[in-house]
Amino acid sequence: MEGDGHLSIPALGKTTLNRILNPRIVFTFHKNNLKLYKLIQSELGGIGRFQSKDNNVIRYIIGDIEGINTLIRLLHNKFRTPKILTFNKLIQFMNTKYNLNFEESLLDLSKINSNSWFTGFTDSDGYFGIKFREANPNSKIRRYRNPQIGLVFRLDQRSFDRPTESSMSSIMEKIANFLSCNLITVKQKSKRPLKLEAIDMLSAEISGLSKIENLINYLNKFPLLGLKLLDFYD
């Protein structure tokens, strides 16, 4: 939810077409990850529907009242990022419109390794890589004379959550602490058309074997379920 999920909340009341709009919870993902979202839909009792956005992108949309209430109950007190602000707006909307009594959701402040939250975040935004450098017998640097293999895990996030205009530093610092690495800020060019400004990205990356081993132990305890599982196995 905090990686690929989006919470869409309409204004209360009827539209100019005399229609009453409900919120929508939307997961947007590559078509190759459809198996994961089919599993999620099955675990949620079959709620929601799938919609093709283009050749490679699919949306899993939950917009019925009972489906939204189900997710509110499941996600309550589970958020770790600023997206909790939008989640609480969703709760307030449902309470007001349908006379429900959901309490405000609280931020999960437990240790990253205490539950499977980081696995879900990794399934959305994590990167597993294998670096290979061929041997260069003529190099003046001794370590470059032999072939080298390096393992990499990296997780990047915008420095600010755009919908809530809130800093992502707090959760990214916790992730960096969990991975035993430094959190760095890098500049990334905007992918949006006609936008030339650079975006500040927060990046946590590990490559040392001991740190990789700690991550492996965590992900063996809380297994990945999507395509990233294959990268993890590699």
Written overview of the protein:
The protein is of the alpha+beta class and 234 residues long. The protein has two domains: 5-98, Homing endonucleases (Endonuclease I-creI), CATH 3.10.28.10; 112-233, Endonuclease I-creI. It has helices spanning 34-43, 65-75, 83-98, 117-125, 169-179, 209-221, 228-233; strands at residues 5-8, 24-30, 49-52, 57-62, 126-133, 148-158, 160-161, 166-167, 183-189, 198-206. The strands form three sheets. Strands 1-2-4-3 form a four-stranded antiparallel sheet. A four-stranded antiparallel sheet has the order 5-6-10-9. It is elongated, with a radius of gyration of 21 Å.
The overall pLDDT, averaged over residues, is: 91
In the CATH classification, which architecture of the largest domain applies? Roll
The total domain count is 2
DSSP helical segment count: 7
CATH superfamily membership of the largest domain, which one? Homing endonucleases
The level of helicity is: 25-40%
Q: How many strand units?
A: 10
State the end-to-end distance: 26 Å
Task: Return the CATH class of the largest domain.
Answer: Alpha Beta
Radius of gyration: 21 Å
Strand proportion: 25-35%
Largest sheet properties:
4 strands, antiparallel
